[in-house]
Amino acid sequence: MNIERINTYRDARFSQAVLNQHGCFLVDADPYEVEIISRREAVIRGREAEAFPAVIEEFRFYTPHITSFYDVNHNIVKEFSPVPILKLNLEDIQPSQFYVDEDKISAIRDFIRAGEDIIIQVRKHGDRYIALDGHTRLYYAVRMGWTEVCAVEADSDDYIFDFVEEAIRRDIRTPCGLQPVDHHTYERKWNQFCDDYFAQRENKE
Length: 205
Hints:
By secondary structure, the chain is α/β, with parallel strands linked by helices. The chain contains six helices and 13 strands. α3 crosses α4 (135-144). The two termini are 33 Å apart. The relative contact order is 0.13.
């Protein structure tokens, strides 16, 4: 079974609302959607119910706080133990990226209406937390004037500390330091940084 996550915001095979949530997948070329309906629940849709567990597993890599999954008839498909959700001040969050994509900012306006709608993955580091994902949502919180967001603790590879060190070198110490850029610039600059970093790391090994 081949599962591919769709990372664009334009694809006629999927609903726009779920595209904006990044909940769209192709399973052997067939479209599947996982639509978040609350801070812990989602509805999964697709051709074969047998594929649902694998899609859910892929989806939860990015959104571990979603623990209850239903089909379109609201029958439970899969449940997980609840994950503790923290409330964090933005000042206590250290970014591990440098840029945010303006296209993504436009997309998340559809489903984020308050700071509590933002749930990111973080790693505890000293008396602060490293953001492992969700940088666009964090910057949106800054723009909206919100001071708190929600988070779940997760683990990560140690390369994240190198990314944090580079962010601090660029004077990015809180989400307000993130730099908004257009989509093409984001893809070019962020992807180039990641490619260069991992190439250098591989050469050292």
